[in-house]
Specification:
By secondary structure, the chain is mainly α. Helices cover 69% and strands 0% of the residues. The protein folds into two domains: 240 residues, Rhopdopsin 7-helix transmembrane proteins (Up-down Bundle), CATH 1.20.1070; 127 residues, Orthogonal Bundle (Arc Repressor Mutant, subunit A), CATH 1.10.10.60. It is built from 18 helices and no strands. The longest helix is centred in the middle third of the chain and has 32 residues. Pfam families: HTH_18.
């Protein structure tokens, strides 16, 4: 199969996208953010597949694989917002919400169905003619208006997602017992990349329409090259830091980095890490009991800014020893340990039928900085949100 140089680049990005989709889907459970991100990458993978086919003779063999996602920007925006919403601790979108957000895409899709049903020979002839006459020209006004509406639609979703991320970032700044800050930074980078992708297309398109600086084919090629680079960056970053893209922070099975800004070492390969430690098992068990005693009896976890340094100073034990005991003896991480106590405290407050505290107050009273972090930790521990827990408790009484 003959293929152009851009087609080879699209093929490389397509392979990366397929790998990333497989990892995201297999490592995530239904409803988790990883599944939504897999859907986003899958949409990009399809556009890359189109690029490969149209930049080779592949379209002659597989013409019916092309043009199934007209107005792809109408999908990218809602899917990305759904991903940000779940990563921020929001509830899963219902089928009705997905249909509502996807309605513009469905309208454009059904508008183009007649073209999808053309015979293969006619499609091949159409794509061949298009390639032989790729100089382009000025698009009719109605199509320009449609493209502008599509780009404005995507822009509104990206802006909404950015505002939500900015709010979460403010709340995560002071959170020292989980990796919310790193997760938000990843999402903001992805949002900026998507904004850059669409801004790049708009600039090229306007330059072509108003000044004839490029052909329409070149606009599409440059845009797809930008998307290829975006997919490669996502794969490089995401496969190296899966804990930042698969699930919301505070998950108990979260494979966090080796260290965090609060200084704690996380329990990855703890046996190898502490192989040469002089801390004997009996002493480690005594330290573990002292850690639990201080947290339970003195309720240190109620301090929202509690970090490893403060805990080690309170115990009078060197920080690296406290970290070792938490990782190796207690088989957990610092943030998971602290948030576990906070969740139990919150459950006790919800169970107390003599009071009717709001969930926001329960979050603060339990040591969380905000409702978002509270929801994430509660879901990771109990499998559902605190609001669902409270509702089930009331129904059982």
């Amino acid at each position: 199969m003959s293929i152009t140089l851009p087609g080879l680049f699209y093929l490389m990005a397509l392979a990366q996208a397929v790998l990333l989709v497989g990892v995201l889907w297999s490592k995530s459970r239904p409803g988790e953010p990883g599944r939504i991100l897999a859907l986003l990458v899958a949409v990009m993978a399809y556009k890359l597949l189109e690029g490969v086919l149209l930049n080779s003779d592949g379209y002659t063999a597989l013409p019916h694989l092309i043009d199934w996602l007209p107005g792809v920007a109408l999908l990218l925006g809602p899917i990305f917002l759904a991903y940000v919403n779940r990563m921020s601790g929001g509830e899963r979108w219902t089928v009705r919400q997905w249909l509502l957000h996807g309605l513009p895409f469905l309208l454009v899709f059904f508008w183009g169905v007649p073209g999808l049903l053309l015979p293969a020979e006619q499609k091949v002839a159409m794509y061949t003619a298009w390639q032989n006459n790729a100089t382009g020209g000025v698009i009719p006004g109605r199509f320009v208006v449609l493209l502008v509406v599509i780009k404005c639609h995507l822009g509104s979703y990206l802006w909404t997602a950015w505002r939500q991320l900015a709010e979460v970032a403010k709340q995560a700044v002071s959170q020292t017992s989980d990796d919310s800050r790193w997760t938000v930074q990843w999402q903001k980078k992805l949002c900026l990349m998507l904004m850059g992708l669409e801004a790049f297309w708009v600039v090229l398109f306007l330059a072509q329409q108003w000044f004839g600086l490029a052909t329409l084919d070149a606009v599409g090629q440059y845009w797809l090259l930008f998307m290829s680079g975006l997919v490669l960056l996502m794969g490089y970053w995401g496969l190296q830091h899966p804990h930042l893209i698969l699930v919301s922070p505070s998950s108990n099975d979260d494979p966090s980095p080796a260290t965090t800004q609060s200084g704690e070492s996380l329990p990855m390969d703890a046996t190898d890490k502490y192989r040469h430690s002089l801390l004997d098992e009996e002493t480690a068990e005594l330290m573990a009991r002292e850690i639990h005693r201080s947290l339970a009896d003195e309720q240190l976890y109620l301090q929202p800014s509690l970090n490893l340094d403060q805990l080690s100073n309170h115990l009078g034990i060197r920080k690296h020893l406290v970290s070792q005991v938490i990782n190796q003896t207690l088989q957990t991480s610092f943030f998971a340990l602290i948030n576990g106590y906070r969740v139990n405290h919150a459950k006790a407050m919800i169970d107390d039928r003599h009071h009717s505290f709001t969930l926001e107050r329960i979050a603060i009273e339990s040591g969380f900085n905000n409702r978002v972090t509270f929801n994430k930790a509660f879901k990771a521990s109990e499998g559902h949100s605190p609001s669902v827990y409270r509702k089930e408790l009331r129904l059982a009484s």
